[in-house]
Amino acid sequence: MPRAALAVEVWLVLALSLGASAVYAILSLVQSLTSAQALRKQAAVLNGAVTPGRPYLDLAYQLVNIADTLVPVALVAYLLYRSGESMHTIGADLRRPRRDALRGLVLAAVVGGAGLGLYLLAYSLGIDLKVVPTTLPPTWYRLPVLVLDAAQNGILEEVIVAGYLLHRLSQLGWSDNKALATSAVIRGSYHLYQGFGGFVGNLVMGLIFGRLYQRWGRAAPLVLAHTLMDAVAFVGYVTLKSRLHFIP
Q: How far apart are CA 139 and CA 204, in angstroms?
């Protein structure tokens, strides 16, 4: 494909997905900073009920939102196919299950633990909002929806800002370091609604995940690691919040 067409493609994919999320996150941070309350006294809810008191309608909303959020991933798959490639090109497939699973598990354990510590530090310093993983009521579908939402986050973010973006920027002639920095800044930016700690933590995560993608050429272990980290955070919050008093 012509270089100009690739550049336009990248801009459109970002504008329809995580690039737009970054703009909204910046506006959300501005709103929080200009509020009368300190950041640590405000809350950022990650998974909230849409229609409280109407569980089946709320479940429908949750499932439709998850499916809608994954449409940009389907678009990326189509765009890769159109350019004579596939999801295998960026390693977003199941062709190496054992190696990808091992890498994903190790990465989730290391990065997930460090991420929790950084969040607690940022919150104690007053530069982060209180992150509430969910306010879904204790219905039968709460845990399945939280796991599906974790998978949605892992697929969307790692396929687009790790696999697709780094692959396309390489095709556009960007150096590995420049592409890595751009990907990491975008990742950090769409987490700014959580505060400055959320930005820094995800920026560092983006640098680690992006470099590993550049070395491995596979997004699958990153998807698994991200999904596991979010699933543990969401489900752990629901099941252990009352016992872990050090968590805000």
A: 35
What count of Cα atoms within 13 Å lies in the side-chain half-sphere of residue 72?
27
Evaluate whether 179 touches 166 at the Cβ level (below 8 Å): yes
**Rounded to an integer, what distance in angstroms lies between the CA atom of residue 212 and that of residue 140?**
38
pLDDT along the chain (248 residues), means of 10: 92 97 97 92 93 93 97 98 96 96 96 90 91 91 96 98 98 97 98 95 97 98 98 89 64
3-class DSSP assignment, residue 44: strand
Phi-psi region of 91 (alpha: psi -120 to 50; beta: other; left: phi over 0): left
Query: Alpha helix locations (H) across the chain?
Result: 3-15, 18-33, 55-69, 71-82, 97-124, 142-157, 165-171, 176-189, 196-216, 220-240
Nearest-10 crossing angle of helices 196-216, 97-124 = 160
- Its pTM stands at 0.94
